[in-house]
From TrEMBL:
<protein>
    <recommendedName>
        <fullName>Thioredoxin domain-containing protein</fullName>
    </recommendedName>
</protein>
<dbReference type="Pfam" id="PF12543">
    <property type="entry name" value="DUF3738"/>
</dbReference>
<dbReference type="InterPro" id="IPR000866">
    <property type="entry name" value="AhpC/TSA"/>
</dbReference>
<dbReference type="InterPro" id="IPR013766">
    <property type="entry name" value="Thioredoxin_domain"/>
</dbReference>
<keyword id="KW-0676">Redox-active center</keyword>
<feature type="domain" description="Thioredoxin">
    <location>
        <begin position="20"/>
        <end position="162"/>
    </location>
</feature>
<dbReference type="InterPro" id="IPR050553">
    <property type="entry name" value="Thioredoxin_ResA/DsbE_sf"/>
</dbReference>
<dbReference type="GO" id="GO:0016491">
    <property type="term" value="F:oxidoreductase activity"/>
</dbReference>
<dbReference type="InterPro" id="IPR017801">
    <property type="entry name" value="DUF3738"/>
</dbReference>
<dbReference type="GO" id="GO:0016209">
    <property type="term" value="F:antioxidant activity"/>
</dbReference>
<dbReference type="InterPro" id="IPR036249">
    <property type="entry name" value="Thioredoxin-like_sf"/>
</dbReference>
<dbReference type="GO" id="GO:0030313">
    <property type="term" value="C:cell envelope"/>
</dbReference>
<dbReference type="GO" id="GO:0017004">
    <property type="term" value="P:cytochrome complex assembly"/>
</dbReference>
<keyword id="KW-0201">Cytochrome c-type biogenesis</keyword>
<keyword id="KW-1015">Disulfide bond</keyword>
<dbReference type="Pfam" id="PF00578">
    <property type="entry name" value="AhpC-TSA"/>
</dbReference>
Length: 402
């Protein structure tokens, strides 16, 4: 059995932003550094004038972004001589991005926007985000990379619209930026921002849900999950593998919409609220019990490998998509959850690696078992079957006294 990755959409900030609207001319784009592309002294206005420009906002930690590298490389190569340029924009520093590109080549221009000025101008709070700028230097549309193909790009290139005056500037961070959009936070006034923190939790059944998705940010104090199964909600609340949550399958597969909002950095309290909320709202009893079972055990026979690197940033980020897992300043816990989701089996952590690391893992998503070899080759970790004593959870409907 295979399952969807734990995280599918990467929200960079929980805010509502203004964005440069379609049809508006982009007078200039200014970045801190050009990591990959033409030489800096060749980066002038004429370089992009009259060309279709695709801005791809991404991060080295963003698995859905990395998943699309083959497509971006194909588009960049196919239209390199036909008036089309892809500029991949990250908010990470050059010293982080360059080593990553050696491992995962990207054939586009790559630039660093560490102060997030361009990212904020375009109102980007989800990675990946794709923005198309037409030959006249105007925003054509915000589009999903999945919706772009060669015919789409060819149509834009062959558009008969005559180029107007375009002024792109990509190499002088000292110039003032035009058209900067103000960030608008939810709860607009300063008085609201000083109000006492709120704690809210809503759990409702949703029999119509066909898909699972949303925001799962326990460290941020934010959960907004739709179509979440009772089994997955309980597993997250108790920090246990969903394969160790047992009970009536119809009950455990019941779909929920779960919303939680509270101050950041209180993950233990988030878990407690989820546990109590699930019990109360759904009328459940959840009983722990120990038992011996055969399960997959993840170990690090040679200790900390060179592939699990010391974090280069203090900001923790993690994401996963088909065949890709990426962690920055992150523990192995989320890696293990995604291995379980990929293989549909419980995984016991016997690595004794409890610190935070930078790591990447790639495998053939059409062959789930290929993750075993990938773990060994790319992270120095071994996954094998063993008998272990573990704690499982038995979930039942609470018996009401008459």
């Amino acid at each position: 059995m295979t399952a969807s990755p734990i995280f599918a959409q990467i929200v960079t900030k929980n805010i509502v932003k203004s964005q440069i609207p379609a049809g508006q001319e982009i007078s200039q784009l200014t970045f801190e550094s050009i990591i990959q592309g033409p030489e800096k002294n060749a980066f002038n206005n004429d370089l992009l004038k009259g060309k279709v420009v695709m801005l791809e906002f991404w991060g080295t930690w963003c698995a859905p972004c990395i998943k699309h590298f083959p497509k971006l490389n194909d588009l960049a190569t196919s239209f390199s001589e036909e008036g089309f340029v892809i500029i991949s924009i990250t908010d990470e520093a050059e010293e982080i991005v360059r080593p990553f590109l050696k491992r995962r080549p990207l054939n586009t221009w790559v630039v660093s926007d560490t102060d997030r000025s361009v990212i904020d101008d375009f109102g980007v709070n989800v990675f990946p985000t794709t923005v198309i700028i037409d030959k006249n230097g105007k925003v054509h549309e915000y589009v999903k990379i999945d919706d772009i193909d060669k015919d789409y790009i060819k149509g834009l290139i062959e558009s008969t619209s005559s180029p107007e005056k375009v002024s792109f500037n990509l190499n002088d961070a000292s110039q003032p930026k035009k058209g900067v959009q103000k960030i608008q936070f939810k709860g607009a006034s300063s008085q609201e921002s000083k109000a006492a923190p709120t704690y809210s939790l809503s759990i409702t059944k949703d029999s119509t849900a066909k898909f699972e998705g949303g925001i799962l940010g326990k460290k941020m104090g934010l959960i907004d999950m739709k179509g979440w199964s009772v089994r997955k909600a309980i597993a997250n609340a108790f920090n246990i593998s969903q394969t160790l949550v047992e009970g009536n399958e119809e009950l455990l597969n019941t779909k929920l919409n779960v919303k939680l909002n509270m101050p950041r950095h209180q993950e233990e309290l988030v878990n407690m609220l989820l546990k109590e909320g699930l019990k109360k709202e759904l009328g459940l009893t959840i009983k722990p019990q120990e038992k011996e079972i055969e399960l997959l055990v993840l170990s690090a026979p040679n200790g900390l490998s060179k592939y699990l690197k010391a974090p280069k940033s203090t900001k923790g980020k993690f994401s996963a998509d088909d065949g890709v897992i990426a962690g920055r300043h992150w523990t192995l816990n989320s890696l293990i959850k995604n291995i379980e989701a990929t293989l549909g089996e419980s995984v016991f952590d016997d690595t004794q690696l409890s610190e935070r690391y930078d790591y990447d893992l790639y495998w053939d998503h059409n062959d789930p078992q290929s993750i075993n070899e990938a773990l060994k080759e790319q992270l120095g970790l071994v996954l094998e079957k063993k008998i272990k004593k573990v704690e499982s959870l038995t979930v039942e409907k609470a018996v009401t006294k008459s």
